User: What shape does this take?
Amino acid sequence: MADCVSKVELTVSCSNLLDKDVGSKSDPLCVLLQSSGGDKWTELGRTERIKNTSDPSFSQRLRLDYHFEAVQNLKLGIYDIDNSSSDLGDDDYLGGLEVTLGQIVSSKTLTRPLQLKKGKPAGKGTITVTAEEMTDNRAIVLELEAKKLDKKDTFGKSDPFLEIFKQGADGKWQLVHRTELSKPFLPETTREMFDDGSHDLIGSFTTKVSELQKTVEFNCIHPEKQKKKKSYTNSGVVSVKSCKLVTQYSFLDYVMGGCQINFTVGVDFTGSNGDPSSPNSLHYMSPDGLNQYLSALWSVGQVIQDYDTDKLFPAFGFGAKLPPDYQVSAAHHEFALNFNPANPYCQGIEGILDAYRMVLPQLKFSGPTNFSPIINHVASIASGGAQSNSASQYFVLLILTDGEITDFDQTRDAIVRASLLPLSIIIVGVGPADFKAMELLDGDDGVLRSTVGEAVARDIVQFVPYRKFKDASKSALAQSVLAEVPNQLVSYFKMRGLEPAKAKAAPKS
Assistant: This one.
């Protein structure tokens, strides 16, 4: 499970800075700090100092690692530098900005007022921060054909495969791709041809991308045979049928291109959770006003919310009987958490938490535990987003459950259908259940198939049991469950052949 880690550069400019120097303008510099927990901040870098200006545009860029699945709290501070000391304690503070890296990259360019401290503006001063991913997004797609390979098997033909190596800056060769047996070689420059089984080397050759683009043939040379036999020419030939350089877009390309990540929550209120007034219930509120459901929601939601402009999140419950009559009806498989079916949107993650606390005492926990209604509901919205034929909308559904799923077959059918849509499903298992059904839906141990045998078009489900993170840091759960979302988003738009939309003008606030 690889984290989404990218190198990002921030470019900073300011306008209308305070003048602290008598008879001249300030000499500003920008420092970048990242929160390391609590009230501790670590300096990541500084720009150059620019003399005598109230409207600096700093050329020195500020570099840092970007992690989608973590909240990265940043502080940018502007100082008037009037001495050669690197200590900022004796320099005038012209204002600063506290912001998350997620907010910056989702806007691409962000302009905000500078503040001397919370609630106190630094005159009319503003700061503009622009993010840019540092990456070479070119990829090479090859179709190769091997002919006249030496036989390595006594009683038949070889089962050849190809290993592709790329030479690093240190001169060492790194394996970047291995083909399947006897398949076309699709996706750089030594290449070695092996026979499966004992992995006997058939031959190898070294080339460059520029040579591959000329559509040529290469002799596969076995070094030992070449030494022994003067008449030796090759152990087979590899010909290049096609070679294309393509752009391989990253998660940040799509986010910075204006793609919105729409977040929806589904909360399990079935009877197996236990009476919420009992301390043994999974919905029981501890003295600090939290439980496993709320802790999981907060952990995941605070990361996602930076990627949705309006911060309005639909939230639903399932498995409960509703007031005033508490009659059994289909509605309890998917009801608005704020009891407003016409407008199920909550303002920010705090709004979802408030709605949950409001309705919890009014519900009668029931059953069964059906996932398919809420998956189908969000899938229908995602289907509408897919109609735009642009990389502008992606959807993430978070289901919080105690794991006693009733409609397993309908749920896997719903997931297989949803795998063709711009949607990822995160399931967090609360409580002590074994969660075998959830692990089957995740599909990490095998491809998930529908009841009629249709396989998912792409992996869209990530399941994590909350108990693994009960005693870990608050960010650990989010890092685990969100780790696959960037690749899932990219895989969808790649499947559809959709490039990132052009970046929109930054919202000012």
